Amino acid sequence: MKIFKKLILSVFVGIISGMFFAAAVLGARIYLDGKFPKETIVSGVKIGFLTKPAAKKEILKEEERYLDEEITISVKDAVATSTMRSLGVEFLTDETLDEVKTMDLKNKIFPDFSIKGETKNLIVKVDKKKLIKELDEKLKIKEFYPKSAIFSVDEKNNLQITDGTAGYVIKEEKLIKKIEQSTRNLTPASLKIEISPAPPEKNKEDLEKEKPAMVNKLSNVVALSDPIYRDDWYIKPLKHLDWVGFEWREEDEKKYITVTIKKEKLDEFLDENVSKWLDVKADEVKIYTDEKGNPAIDGIGKDGIKIQRDMLLTDLESAINEEKTEIEVPTEKIIPTITVSEDLQKIGIKERLSVGHTSYYGSPINRKYNIKTGAGKFNGKLIKPGDTFSFNKTLGKVDKSTGYRKELVIKPEGTIPEYGGGICQVSTTMYRAILFAGLPVAERNEHSYAVSYYSQVLGHGLDATIYLGGADLRFSNDTENSILVQTHVDKDNELYFIFYGTSDGRSVEMKGPEISGYKYPGETVYEKTKDLLRGQTKQVEKSHTGFDVLWQRIITTKDGTKKEEEIRTHYKAVPDKILVGDAENSKDSSIIKQ
Asked: Are 237 and 218 in contact (CB under 8 A)?
């Protein structure tokens, strides 16, 4: 009986021990699965029994110390300090750990826990460009480099070739090997840079073959185009060799000579020839209520313009090297300072909303006079929120009594003199201010044929004709605040409409013009008239080509909602029209001498 009890006890103890052993093995297998074996070392960092994330954390800590520890670098007699990070050293930690074996214990009943880990070095990458840049900044190594032959300009402004000179180059592969060796235990060491003598890559004879191509490049005339009025200023580098320099550059491991321009010489040219036409100071504006209780505006509110000289220098150098014939002069807009009295701020006059601008160079004196007179009717006008504004209603009577002169007006019977000729320049300019403010247009009518005055700025398709008792220009103020209108005539040839109010965050983009559907005028139209004696003729219309124009206005609200509108304009083809006299004598004729 005792023997049986002992046997039972032994079996029970054996089972319990086996269970504990199995549990211990299972627990160890679960705990160690996916971890690195004991004695696994990466560049001196022990990562045995660690998971990948934990191992990476330990390695990164040592990498940071290594990369930022100060070391001595030297070449010849030059000595300086730097860090491995500044020298372009980078570690590929994840890629390294992917190559180190971990323990796979999932499918093994009796795993071998005695597996020893391996010793690996971190995979390292050296950015050669960063390395050379740091060595040059600290040790001026490029001063030792061989210098290739290069084009130059002598004292008499003749194109010459300066021959190359021998020098020294660093032994890059040896240097990188030294760096890689120091990463094995993440112990940064001082670097003594070895150099070896080297000849120039290009000599004088090589450049003699390239000289004709360089002369052609320098002979290319580059037009600097006016971004507003399309005037041009011309630069031929061969005639300005005192402006020119030459540099060797490298791109995609290909070396080439590039033409450079001296900034001070370009600045002199701009000051003498371009700046007076393009550079404009921003005009400060003061808006207040005058003694009569009306809004008053001191200042023009006109944007300033400034030539972006550094950008122009870059563009000009690119044009010369790529043999382009034209570049636009880059400019930046300078917004004027606007000061508004408190009473006008209360009704929402706080900032500039938009600017409408047209020019009418070449206009007769009477037309210019009428434009200035008509524009004055709108200066200082307030448009309340929710109101629909009528151009004709504000303009009022147009005749001799209201100060207008006779000038050409487009009418069904022809283009003939009438009081107020030129007023459509005013309505066209206001139309553009309306468009750029993002305001809804209630009525707009194009001219029957294309008029060159309206295309001087922005091109065709953005004109608005009006005629008292007929065509009008109307728009709504759909903002929550009043809008104040300012008009200004500049240089007797340019008109501005400026809207002030409170922005609700809307922005406007205009795309165009797209011109299509050209139609040429037919044969000359002859029409009899009793206003001329027989044998007399008078041309009342000149021919105009017809075509269609498409613009798009894209309004983006504060919340990002976009609204796209098409502005379609149809200009008719108009033939020459000549009146032929049909009156037998002066009594039958109603000719009025002009």
From this structure: yes
- The answer to whether the beta carbons of residues 438 and 506 sit under 8 Å apart is yes
Contacts of 284-288 with C-beta under 8 Å, sequence gap 24+, read: 284/336, 284/337, 284/338, 284/339, 285/336, 285/337, 285/338, 285/339, 286/339, 286/340, 287/338, 287/339, 287/340, 287/341, 287/344, 287/349, 287/484, 287/500, 288/340, 288/341, 288/344
Name every residue whose Cβ is closer than 8 Å to that of residue 523 and which is 6 or more positions away in sequence.
575
Half-sphere exposure in the Cβ direction for 21 (13 Å, CA): 8
Alpha-carbon span 375 to 429, nearest angstrom: 9
Q: How many CA atoms lie within 13 A of 85 on its CB side?
A: 8
**Which residue stretches of the chain have pLDDT < 70?**
1-34, 105-114, 230, 410-415, 585-594
Orientation angle between helical segments 309-322 and 204-219, nearest 10 degrees = 110
Please give the structure tokens belonging to residue 361: 């160079």
Q: Which long-range contacts (CB under 8 A, 24 or more apart) does 411-418 make?
A: 413/540, 414/540, 414/541, 414/577, 414/579, 415/540, 415/541, 415/542, 416/540, 417/594
* CA–CA gap between residue 262 and residue 558 (Å, rounded): 45
390 CB burial (10 A radius; 0-12, 13-18, 19+)? middle
Beta bridge partners of 486: 498
Query: How far is it, in rounded angstroms, from Cα 578 to Cα 33?
Result: 102
Beta bridge mates, 533 = 583
List, as one string, the DSSP characters of 230-293: --EEEE-GGGGGGGEEEEEEEETTEEEEEEEE-HHHHHHHIIIIIHHHH-BPPPPEEEEE-TTS
Q: What phi and psi, each to the nearest 5 degrees, are found at residue 263?
A: -60, -40
Q: Report yes or no: 295 and 382 within 8 Å, Cβ to Cβ.
A: yes
Three-state SS for 318?
helix
Give pLDDT tens digits for 175-201: 989 988 888 888 888 999 999 999 998
* Paired residues of 250 in beta bridges: 255
Q: What is the pLDDT of residue 21?
A: 46
Distance (Å, whole) CA 563 – CA 506: 11
Cα-atom radius of gyration of the chain, to the nearest Å?
41
CB 589 within 8 A of CB 544: no
- Hey, is 200 helix, strand or coil? coil
Please report, for the chain, the start and end positions of each structural domain, with discontinuous segments joined by +. 33-107+114-207, 208-278, 347-583
Residue with tokens 């660093």: 170
Threshold 0.90, pTM exceeds: no
* 295-298 vs 285-289, strand pairing mode: antiparallel
